[in-house]
């Protein structure tokens, strides 16, 4: 079965670009900016070239260019003007658009070129905070609305995972500060979204902390085996889709009973969208919730 998506509805374009379908129709009819195609059953759709053009048009419009002026540009001059503006300012928006396009085309070269261009202006942690986090948030929404396929998401996240691992390797050679305190990074059972946790691991190692990365889908009971090795343990977990809303409160209680309430010097730091199902004011004493990776890192 072919999972590659190369036809887009107007609703897909709205989800991908943030431009309302009504606005797209106006631009199409009034300025002839896009030329939708039709299936054999006469259903309108847009191809990848239309999506790319709409991203560029939107970028120019957001940077002060009127649609009426953009419409008069020759086709090949639109991406040239986009690159010219991106070189001067607002590199974040341009990079996110380029990464989206690389994802939809399964274009590794575009991903690498965009990433390497960013590193000329920004440190890796800035790229992650300013580019990858907003990008991954958008990708999650696009996946939920069926605008992209799991193949698209896996393609992009595997490339981002690669960059995190490379940067972790770079900083792991640094001397770890001697300490009886350790951070244990893990995801609960059936939770596999590990990019955020991987970046936290990078930030901890970069700051000289002892960081033990266990990865995804770790049974709660197995964590107790670490208790005898360190005087102080801070577990960090990221709840993106698991535990589910109906289970997360009990999960926190079970963690507290097994690892915190027995008198050990143990804490649990948690992040992720599933925290919306919790009353954060009623968390056990040793459990702390963070709204973002950045707020957690600032708490170190």
Verbal overview:
There is one protein chain. With 300 residues, the chain is of the alpha/beta class. The protein folds into 3 domains: 1-89, Orthogonal Bundle (Multidrug-efflux Transporter Regulator, Chain: A, Domain 2), CATH 1.10.1660; 91-173, Methyltransferase, Methionine Synthase (B12-binding Domains), Chain A, domain 1, CATH 1.10.1240; 176-298, Cobalamin-binding domain (Rossmann fold, 3-Layer(aba) Sandwich), CATH 3.40.50.280. Helices cover 52% and strands 12% of the residues. The protein has helices at residues 10-17, 21-31, 48-62, 67-70, 77-88, 91-105, 108-119, 124-144, 150-172, 195-206, 245-260, 293-298; strands at 37-38, 44-45, 181-188, 211-218, 232-238, 266-271, 287-289. It has a 5-stranded parallel beta sheet, with helices on both faces. A two-stranded antiparallel ribbon has the order 1-2. Helix 3 runs antiparallel to helix 6 (91-105) and helix 8 (124-144) packs antiparallel against helix 9. It is elongated and about 70 Å long. The termini are far apart. The mean pLDDT is 86.
CATH superfamily of the largest domain: Cobalamin-binding domain
Low-confidence stretches: none
Q: What is the fold named in CATH at topology level of the largest domain?
A: Rossmann fold
| Total DSSP E strands | 7
Kindly provide the radius of gyration, computed on alpha-carbon positions and rounded to a whole number of angstroms.
Answer: 23 Å
How many structural domains are formed by the residues? 3
Average pLDDT works out at 86
Number of helices: 12
What series of H and E elements makes up the topology?
Answer: HHEEHHHHHHHEHEEHEEH
What CATH architecture of the largest domain would you give?
A: 3-Layer(aba) Sandwich
Looking at the structure, what is the overall shape? elongated
Question: Which band does the percent of strand residues land in?
Answer: 5-15%
Q: What level of helicity do the residues show?
A: 40-55%
Structural class: alpha/beta
- Give a short account of the largest sheet: 5 strands, parallel
At the first level of CATH, the class of the largest domain is Alpha Beta
Strands side by side in the biggest sheet: 4-3-5-6-7
Keywords: DNA-binding, Repressor, Transcription, Transcription regulation
InterPro entries: Cbl-bd_cap (IPR003759), Cobalamin-bd_sf (IPR036724), DNA-bd_dom_put_sf (IPR009061), MerR-type_HTH_dom (IPR000551), MerR_fam (IPR047057), Meth_synthase_dom (IPR036594)
Organism: Winogradskyella alexanderae
Domain HTH merR-type: 7-76
């Amino acid at each position: 079965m072919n999972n590659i998506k190369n036809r887009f509805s107007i609703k897909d374009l709205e989800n991908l670009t943030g431009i309302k379908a009504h606005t797209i129709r106006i631009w199409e009819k009034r300025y002839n900016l896009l030329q939708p195609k039709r299936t054999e059953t006469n259903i309108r759709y847009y191809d990848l070239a239309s999506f790319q053009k709409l991203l560029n048009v939107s970028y120019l419009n957001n940077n002060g260019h009127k649609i009426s002026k953009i419409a008069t540009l020759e086709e090949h001059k639109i991406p040239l003007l986009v690159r010219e503006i991106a070189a001067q300012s607002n590199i974040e928006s341009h990079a996110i658009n380029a990464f989206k396009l690389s994802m939809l085309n399964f274009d590794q070269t575009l991903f690498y070129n965009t990433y390497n261009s960013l590193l000329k202006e920004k440190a890796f942690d800035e790229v992650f905070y300013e580019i990858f986090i907003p990008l991954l948030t958008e990708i999650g929404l696009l996946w939920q609305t069926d605008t992209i396929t799991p193949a698209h998401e896996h393609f992009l996240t595997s490339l981002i995972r690669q960059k995190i691992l490379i940067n972790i390797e770079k900083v792991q050679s640094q001397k770890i500060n001697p300490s009886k305190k350790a951070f244990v990074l893990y995801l609960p059972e059936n939770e596999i979204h590990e990019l955020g946790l991987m970046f936290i691991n990078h930030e901890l190692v970069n700051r000289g902390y002892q960081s033990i990365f266990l990865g995804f889908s770790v049974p709660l009971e197995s964590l107790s085996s670490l208790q005898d090795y360190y005087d102080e343990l801070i577990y960090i977990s990221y709840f993106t889709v698991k535990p589910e809303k109906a289970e997360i409160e009990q999960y926190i209680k079970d963690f507290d009973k097994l690892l915190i309430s027995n008198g050990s010097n143990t804490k649990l730091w948690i992040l992720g969208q599933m925290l919306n199902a919790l009353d954060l004011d009623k968390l056990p004493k040793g459990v702390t919730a963070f709204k973002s990776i950045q707020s957690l890192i600032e708490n170190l």
